[in-house]
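Tokens for chain A. Residues wanted.
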């Protein structure tokens, strides 16, 4: 039995209404439903609003749409606005292009513990496979079934262990993976109080490590991390990233270096409440 824990999901999106619809349907078919889902929308057009409105009408949990005007890549700003809307005590972060497996919420809740944040995994799908996935495939689990995926264009590699591992194998792979348990924007969770104490996300940052920097401040504050790379799973739907510019990453790297060097625990450029 999973913990009686009030959970809020924050997922970021920008002009990917087809993908967002699939992701929201994925949350509607969880074994443990979230208490709410907040769509952090960084300036999408009316098409995204229509998707949210349609699903709000039939959703078994509240879907809140937090939107800001399109002013380039401002994900950190919209995430902070979304954080101010959170009602739950525990917050799970993902993206509007990542469909959660039906045990996604359950795994995050089961592993949540004070003094820790959780670092989950994702499995990238090619564009043509991403397109093939229907609402029915999400509901019945085809989107995470290796036979179905390979029949629809996915090439099998060692990385498919993320989808096939179960039980003790998941725990073993989480333990031996060389990947660090960092705060990943596509799949991470933590206590709302810890995140607000860190003042949320640094709003100077754009694309490239902007999520990880929050995790680095949490580390500086004494919060530890748990690796769930092989047990808390989402499939990542392929899309263009025309909004990415090299100077964004360069600027972000400087901020992250400063965070680590000066052991910063709170950003001066985040949530002021």
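Reply:
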């Amino acid at each position: 039995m999973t913990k009686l824990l009030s959970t809020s999901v924050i997922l970021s999106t920008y002009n990917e209404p087809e993908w967002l619809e699939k992701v929201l349907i994925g949350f509607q078919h969880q074994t443990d439903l979230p208490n709410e889902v907040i769509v952090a929308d960084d300036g999408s057009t009316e098409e995204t609003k229509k998707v949210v409105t349609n699903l709000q009408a039939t959703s078994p949990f509240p879907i809140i749409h937090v939107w800001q005007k399109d002013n380039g890549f401002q994900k950190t700003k919209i995430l902070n606005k979304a954080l101010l809307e959170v009602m739950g005590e525990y917050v799970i972060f993902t993206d509007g292009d990542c469909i959660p497996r039906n045990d996604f919420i359950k795994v995050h809740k089961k592993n949540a513990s004070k003094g820790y944040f959780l670092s989950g995994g994702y499995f990238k799908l090619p564009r043509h496979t991403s397109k093939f996935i229907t609402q029915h495939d999400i509901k019945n689990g085809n989107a995470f079934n290796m036979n179905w995926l390979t029949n629809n264009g996915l090439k099998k590699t060692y990385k498919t262990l993320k989808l096939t591992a179960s039980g003790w194998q998941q725990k073993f792979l989480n333990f031996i993976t060389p990947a660090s348990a960092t705060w990943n924007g596509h799949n991470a969770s933590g206590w709302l109080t810890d995140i607000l104490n860190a003042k949320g996300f640094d709003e100077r940052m754009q694309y490239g490590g902007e999520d990880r920097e929050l995790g680095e401040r949490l580390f500086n504050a004494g919060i530890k991390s748990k690796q769930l790379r092989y047990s808390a799973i989402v499939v990542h739907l392929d899309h263009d990233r025309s909004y990415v510019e090299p100077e964004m990453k360069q600027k972000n790297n400087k901020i992250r270096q400063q965070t680590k060097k000066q052991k910063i625990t709170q950003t001066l450029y985040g949530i002021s409440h």
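The chain has one domain: 7-261. The domain at 7-261 is CATH 3.90.550.10 (Spore Coat Polysaccharide Biosynthesis Protein SpsA; Chain A).
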